[in-house]
Design goal:
The chain is mainly α. Helix 3 runs antiparallel to helix 4. Helices cover 72% and strands 0% of the residues. It is extended. The protein contains four helices and no strands.
């Protein structure tokens, strides 16, 4: 009986569950796969927003109203499809990034509108 116990414990120690399903992932490949997926998302979104811009040009209201509605529905979908904290973080950072990009664009393309005065204190 003692021989059976030794065989059994030795056999069990060599078994690794799901060994055939295990895959070693290289972190470099994971990053490149993620970057490819983000590029795919960006490309798709650019195409969609180009179509929305063309559609907005055919509407009888101002472009500001068109983009307000697009922004409203995009934010509404984002808050329903993600957690509230994630939405708040993304909303804050995207607003900040878009504003910074617009400021850089304006400074490069319309230098006459650049304001060097930046108040240090608000009243």
């Amino acid at each position: 009986m003692k021989k059976d116990k030794k065989k059994k414990s030795k056999k069990d120690s060599n078994i690794i569950p799901f060994k055939n399903d295990a895959k070693v992932m290289n972190s470099h490949n994971t990053v490149s796969i993620r970057e490819k997926e983000i590029d795919k998302i960006n490309s798709h979104c650019r195409k969609i927003f180009q179509e929305l811009e063309e559609f907005g040009d055919t509407i009888g209201v101002s472009s500001a109203e068109v983009w307000y509605n697009i922004l409203f529905f995009a934010k509404q979908r984002a808050i329903y499809c993600s957690s509230y904290p994630s939405f708040k973080i993304n909303d804050k950072h995207t607003t900040q990034e878009v504003t910074e990009n617009y400021a850089k664009f304006s400074d490069e393309n319309y230098p006459e509108l650049k304001v060097d005065y930046k108040p240090t204190k608000l009243h």
